[in-house]
Amino acid sequence: MHIAILEDESYWIDRIRRTLDAAGWQGSFFRTGEDLLAGLGRAAFDAVILDMHIANSPMTGADVLSQLRRQKSPEPILMLTQFARQHSAAAALDEGADDYLAKPFDGDELCARIRAIRRRIAVADADMVHAGPLHLSRQFRCAHWFDRRINLRGQGFDILLMLVEADGDIVTQDALWQRVWAKWRNLDTQAQPIQAGVSRLRKDIREVTGFEVVATVPGVGYRLALG
Fold first, then answer.
1. pTM to 2 decimals?
2. Which one of 3.40.50.1820, 3.90.550.10, 3.90.228.20, 3.40.50.2300 gives the CATH number of domain 2-127?
3. Is the distance from CB of 65 to CB of 45 less than 8 angstroms?
4. Which CATH class is domain 132-224?
5. Residue ranges for the chain with pLDDT beneath 70
6. Helix (H) or strand (E) segment spanning residue 90
């Protein structure tokens, strides 16, 4: 398990690192909210731990939580707080945190809380679809190439989901139209929005992979080309 941690106190960084190491888990530590958000954009994590109060960061843990939930990030989030600030923890739960843990805490309890929030998203995990190194979450409408997030625009997620579900078979233009665009009844033609949508999708994927993974089948439609 790979966990992203926002923490700026050396004592707690060391405590959490030793706890995760003992559990056989990997931790990536960030001292500012901005650095953690950048890290989440570069790699996929199984959970996020946020200290609510970071001394030398323009963004507090609460700020990071709000931004992650606005972005509909799929990672479960555990908030760390002080005993005297449990009212802040309650507010964090209202903002979308999956759980909180008050300092000082026991390492076994930290691991138990992480396992618990991971179990609670088991349904979301079951909603994942995969094609080689492509990983998509239907619930959170996000895609990763290996552990790198693909920032999809417009109808990109819906197009890519159809291609992944087809498992290498051709997805026809008619099928794309019916599933993705047919709700806009006032469109006069199928070809233009489909071509524009696929073009955006290719560009978004290429920015991460460096090459094309969507192949055109002339006069018919499209398919994934992963190898």
1. 0.56
2. 3.40.50.2300
3. no
4. mainly alpha
5. 83-89, 122-126, 183-191
6. helix 86-95
